[in-house]
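FW: tagging you since you asked about this chain on Friday. Here's the raw sequence from the shared folder, copied in full. Didn't touch anything.
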Amino acid sequence: MISKNKTLSDLGETGIIRLIQGKSPHELPSYVKKGIDDDCAVLETASNRVLLVTTDTLIEGIHFTGRTISAEALGWKALAVNISDIAAMGGAQQTAFLSIALRPDSQASFLESFMAGFNALAGKTGVVLAGGDTVESPSFAAITITLLGDCLPEHVVYRSGARAGDDVWVTGPLGNAAAGLFLLQNKEAGAPSEYDALVRAHQKPMPLFKLGRALAEGGLVHAMIDISDGISKDLGHVCEQSGVGAVLEAASIPLSSDLSRLAAEMGKNPLDWALHGGEDYALLFTASPADKAKIESLTAKLSGSPATRVGAIVREDGISLVYHEGKVPLEPCGYLHFSKPRE
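HL: got it, structure written out here
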């Protein structure tokens, strides 16, 4: 255990690498021929499978602050967002590479807690940390994880496979993460302890890695994406790459009772959180209406509750949201990088 007052400057780069290495499993799987401690990791791949690679970066002040997430939860979440990407392709997560930039006066205990959260999820999901980089940052923390996975070529699910007539499904509920962030950022809102599920959805999302793979292997989905920036934006990616449009049913969007209660107390529209909030890391996918019963059965078995049909894919461009009163265009209002800061 490192002294609470020791900083990263005290450890130095070698000490930081040793800390990370010491908090990682000592026994590597057979496909990792070389992990941390060389210029490159060396991995074996099976010739009949394709390699999946995803990278996500979390920047202090944009994606997280110490006020809204602990170091331990940040380690979990940094890995979770990458696993969710692999799940959305129908693959199996395997090997991670962690690059982390921290201020030299950061407490070494921060890194220790970060690794505890990272390794907690890695242990649940079979991910092995095989390398990365550590650098000094003069002002803010930056965390980048590259995750490798694999899949049989015929099981890879792309965003571009949606077809007119498909049902649109989500694993839900949606909006909990955005509502949890709202709670943590606004003291006038209810106490976070009264909404544990919302706060947990923001801080420690559980990627649906078993479900994504099962949907792909079962040949049940035509297109799939994880909901990281909000359904309004992420469904837009599917539609754009598939050359189709979509109609969503407002009444069908799955909302948790906690989210609805908080929205009522705060005078908010719960659909705003569900449609545009992002960071749910649920799966959005399209599938043939003929497979409705199979999808409901499989998703209930693997995630505890069935996925929800929320609309349909249409030939016309654009996304519409249908209310009882009529239909309105749904604009992609999820988080946009290089635009105004997230509020």
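FW: The longest strand covers residues 92-102.
HL: agreed, and The chain has ten helices and 13 strands.
FW: great, closing this out.
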